[in-house]
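Worked example 2:
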Amino acid sequence: MYSRILSGHKICMEPIFVSVLVISCFLLTKYLVISNQKGPMQSPLKTEITADNVQYGRNVKDLLFFRPMDINTASLEELTLLPGIGEVNACRIVQFRRAIGFFLSVDELDTINSPLSPKLLETITPYLTVEFDY
């Protein structure tokens, strides 16, 4: 048996080491068994996503801010996702695009037959882009 004198006390290292090792293994085994169990232990961690608890408008605005929508390829449904753009304004944009062929810049939205308000244009401009890779 290995012994050591530390601060005037004789300490047996082997039994302490073995005891700590056994207790640690016991505690770890208990947590491993609990983590592998199926059933009520895992259910509080899952959240069911329903239409009631998802804010679609907010998520769409966040996504469009980081990847703006190309107004030359956006569909009527996609344009209605823009804040403040309803079906009427989305139809105006699509009809104008068909008439001119394509937009050269987002600023051309000012020239639509029934122009969008300056405040609305300021609101939707960060969510729009014009790409020329088609």
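Residues 3-37 form one domain. The longest strand covers residues 3-6.
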